[in-house]
Amino acid sequence: MISDRIKSNLTNELRRSLLAKVGIVLFVSILLMGLFAPVLATHNPHEQGHSDEAGASYPPLGLTDEITIAQDGERVSHTVEGTSEHVLGTNNVGQDIYSRFLYGARTSLLVGLSGTLLATAIGVPVGLTAGYFGGRVDDGLMRIADIMLAFPSLVLALALMGAFGRGTVGIPDPIVAAGFADGMPETITFPGMVTVVVALVTWVWFARVARGEAMAIRNEEYVKAARSLGASHATILRKHVLPNSLTPIIVLATIQVAAIILLESSLSYLGFSGTTLSWGYEIQRGHDVMRNQWWVATVPGIGIVLSVIGVNLLGDWLRDALDPNIEGEGAGGAG
Amino acid sequence: MAFGKFLIRRLLQGVFVIWGVVTITFALRALSPGDPVNLIAGQVPDQSTRDQIRQDLGLDQPMYVQYFDYLGNLLTGNLGYSYNQRRAVNDIIAQHFAATVELAVAATIVAVVIAIPLGVVSATRRDQPADYAATFGSLVGISTPNFWLGIMLILIVAMQVGVFPTSGRGIAFHEAMYNLFRYGYVLDLLSWLSYITLPAITLGTYFTALITRLTRSGMIDELGKPYVTATEAKGLPRTLVRYKHVLRNTLIPIITVLGLQLGTLMGGAVITEEVFNWPGLGQMFITSLRNGDWPVVQGIVLFIAVAFVVINILVDALYARLNPQVTDE
Amino acid sequence: MKGVINQSIDRRTLLKLTGAAGATSGLGALAGCLGDPDDDDGDGGDLDLDTLTITQGEFPDVEDPNDHITGPYFNVYDHVYEPLFDVTPGEEPQGRIVEDWEHGDDGTVELTIRSDVVFHQGQELTAEDIAFTLERQIDPDVPPASDQVAGLGSIEGAEALDDTTLELSYSGAAQLAEFEFGNYLRAVSQEWYENDAPTTDDGVISGEDAEAFNGTGPFQVTEYNPGQNRIVMEPFDDYWGEAPNVGELIFEGETSDSGRVSSLLADETNFVDNVQPSEVGNVENDDDVRIEEVTSFRNIFLPMKNEVEPFDSLEFRQAMNYAVDNEEIISDILNGFGAPMSQPTPPEVNGYNPDLDPYEHDLEQAEELVEEAGYTEDDPADITLTVPEGRYLNDAEVGERAADQIDQLPNVDCDFESVPFDVVSEANSAGVDHEDIPFFLIGWGVITGDADYGMFGFFHDDGGVQSFRDEELQTALEESQVEDDPEEREAMLQEVNEMAQEKAPWVFLHQQQSIYGLDADIEWDAREDESVFVWEMS
């Protein structure tokens, strides 16, 4: 499936392109941060700093913040200095921003990767079937795809969340279970409904690309030959059509990871996520206090931008190297 | 002849798509957990009042009856009635869509005005600093969530500079224009401009980045085609060839892509309006969704879908006119 | 959207109050509780401004004054459609359009209204109009299907005796009826409604311009566009009283908390509501604007539905109160802007028990009590606190902190979930055995100034939002409702409060602070009931 030609194309392109290298570095760093969040974090991301006289909110290290508090009807002002305890400061409930940043990476990647996987699993079979059989099947499936396209992805995702609610699944955190990170949350809150919803709004792009590939392949001589030798449609689809459409699907999947990360952050910014350990949710929080504590909204935003840039660069690299000709496809950044 | 047939086929498809959208949103309402009677009657305990409301809304009917009633109403142009606002959904959309259109158009203008020159420069000075800057800029633009961009603009521009309000719409464009031409008020128009600038940039950035990328790669493809070298050889000035022929051929496919991206524009508008408290359809959509006011949610989704379908038929028609072979496909 | 829940609970409670046979009003007992009524809340003042802009977090989305029942909406409407009385919690109603009123012995009251009151569009106000307005509100056969019917639960009907005399009939106590018609009757003109008013098919006044408003208040609407969150008014020339001296009064809606403060600081508005505690310093550092605050009658608390495990255990509920440190929540999350709650009734309200102290923060005690309730470190109680987002002051943050504090207990696992408000609202009215969301954060204003108002709905089987079922508490509440002697009744309510503290139906958090930001040169005192009237400014 991955031929030597593809491999050499990939390495050549990687050697040539600085941006591809940057993309890999960014993506891998974010991936590592997410994977090892419990080890890298300095605080439990849910743990709230408890009050000293100045309240619980700290600016990042090296900055100061003026806090006014009402005490017995009087106003008391405190100047709070950033501490090395909370390198990036704390949010308005006193949680460590650095640690939440790491856990936010985890949520973004979890939803981005599993949402893409799910969308692929829905879209590719639909698209291959439509393209391979053509005719009525194709017409029917593509009309459904048309309907999906008429919904803005964010709007449809919001409506789905509104109707289905915000179910989450708790998964035990293997790193904490293995005893490598004491005091960290024992379960990963996996925003299952969000994942399903983002897959439901993006599968159609996979269906379109897979269909195009299948249409091109079904008239190839070797497919016709296989058919005349008595191979069933299912076998042909699995053995010939699918492998040959993989390249564009992989490229599209990479782009979609970026789109889904943006979509997830938009949903959680609007309060439809299901977990509080999300960059979007944190930005919503920071929005309320931005005049005083601007860092609360700023830090997670940088996380989103960097990871989406990383994934997009990966996508550019794959596209340039493999040239699958899917320019202009993709749900785009709904965020 | 072929064109007429093509158009009819697209229209029929469009009707089907809209029916699908209506059906899906109806299903979502049916699946959603909230009870509309609670929304209307609050906590009125009196069962007979509640039953009365349920009956008035037709909610006591079986789901399929409600569905056909809803379809029937839609055919007469009636989008239903808001649970929360005691107002026809048609009116709500009429009151809010101008603000959204204003924002979307402004964002598109921002995007086109910045992106096309940027894409052209990038393509014609390939691998020079200008190209790198444009490529990098559009990469960042395409990767930035617009709600965060909006917040950063408020934080950095609005709060520090003070010229641009942090939120709200101020005055409607048509009112500002009316006052300009009727009374010669320039201030209203400036005020309008100050309100819309940051939201338009917020919404437009993604599209600026997208169009820059598309223009660049389209131009590069076109510049490599034989006719470019041929016309240049004929002695036509280079710039003319580049900007007139090459750019025109590049833009045609871009328009199609933009038609398809209209949904993204509307999705972006939803969140931009929320960040800037822009009183448009997007904000109304979010508010209604949070309140479980499904008739408004359904109405707005339907409205967006109709706009999407109509604009895409227009784009396709335009495209088919320019490229007759499309109709034969 | 602060306010809706309170209002809907309020009317619900009232309905029940009025339904209870022979219930003597809580209101009668209140007079004097807050001291003498202000002398200077009459019209005029010495406000002198070209333009006064008031920016609220919530803006009316309906034009009909007789339909919805949301506090911040009335702040706008009351300048256009005036109530018959001036009502301030804890005080006797003051006549406004009504000059004089006299109760008969048969559940009727005769109101004499001023003869010089005209509507903005020229009609004269007659007793007939008020009777008609009341019909719109309470008669299910006369549109609209008004929410306000519940706020007028004891009023049975009205009849105009002549142009200036109106006879209202009511069931229940006279004082209660007074509160109801005093608070909820905002007259519309029958002639206008029937001939000129823009209405929808089902009779709701609903229009898209200034013509959709026609009241008798000191201000008339001159510009309105429902899509714009903005309404412009100017003083009404033919107002019967003295209209405040403001050239133009503008109400605007701005949902973003920081956006409102930005507008105030940029001098785009003169008055904003619901200033975030963290923004107070920003406002006070600016010489042109100032902060005005008052501890409102709005309680913030966590109901625990006691027919759902583990909240059926008294020890467990008490443990939750010991585990939560409401002082810390106030200082950390609310920057000190709030007062800890000790009982269901806020101070200054009739029936408040001054001898009760808030639960102390005591994790050890809490752990022991949870253990007594049958949960251990190996088999901890598993609960989730559900919190609305953006409804009350820093609600999600308050809830997250409370959940975190409970989670400190080794034998309790407390999760936190934030949801849109309507989810919480549904859970709140879903009954005392509602398994899905038995533990949540909600706020509630005891705006009548009587303790019954804050407890009946939550603690009685006939209450609309029952979260707690306890025979003893119910009986005590019922008894207090039929007690005629105000002093005796106050004592009884104080006992009910003590009982409620002991039984711990809620985790008691705090009374919310209403924080307003306004121009430094406007004099105005914030009201506990969260109303904003321009005629009280100077």
UniProtKB/TrEMBL annotation, chain A:
Keywords: Cell membrane, Membrane, Transmembrane, Transmembrane helix, Transport. One of its GO terms (cellular component) is plasma membrane. The chain crosses the membrane at residues 20-41, 109-135, 147-168, 188-206, 246-272, 292-314. The keyword Cell membrane applies. It is found in: Cell membrane. One of its GO terms (biological process) is transmembrane transport. SUPFAM superfamilies: MetI-like. Pfam families: BPD_transp_1, OppC_N. It is a multi-pass membrane protein. Belongs to the binding-protein-dependent transport system permease family. This is Peptide/nickel transport system permease protein.
UniProtKB/TrEMBL annotation, chain B:
Keywords: Cell membrane, Membrane, Transmembrane, Transmembrane helix, Transport. It is a multi-pass membrane protein. It is found in: Cell membrane. PROSITE patterns: ABC_TM1. GO terms for cellular component: plasma membrane. Residues 97-315 form the ABC transmembrane type-1 domain. The chain crosses the membrane at residues 12-31, 103-124, 136-159, 189-211, 251-271, 294-315. The keyword Membrane applies. Its main location: membrane. GO terms for biological process: transmembrane transport. Pfam families: BPD_transp_1, BPD_transp_1_N. Belongs to the binding-protein-dependent transport system permease family. This is Peptide/nickel transport system permease protein. It comes from Natronorubrum texcoconense.
TrEMBL record, chain C:
Keywords: Signal, Transport. InterPro entries: Peptide/Ni-bd, SBP_5, SBP_5_dom, TAT_signal. One of its GO terms (biological process) is peptide transport. GO terms for cellular component: ATP-binding cassette (ABC) transporter complex; periplasmic space. Coiled coil: none annotated. One of its GO terms (molecular function) is peptide transmembrane transporter activity. Residues 92-463 form the Solute-binding protein family domain. It comes from the Archaea. PANTHER family: OLIGOPEPTIDE-BINDING PROTEIN APPA, PERIPLASMIC BINDING COMPONENT OF ABC TRANSPORTER. Belongs to the bacterial solute-binding protein 5 family. This is Peptide/nickel transport system substrate-binding protein. It comes from Natronorubrum texcoconense.
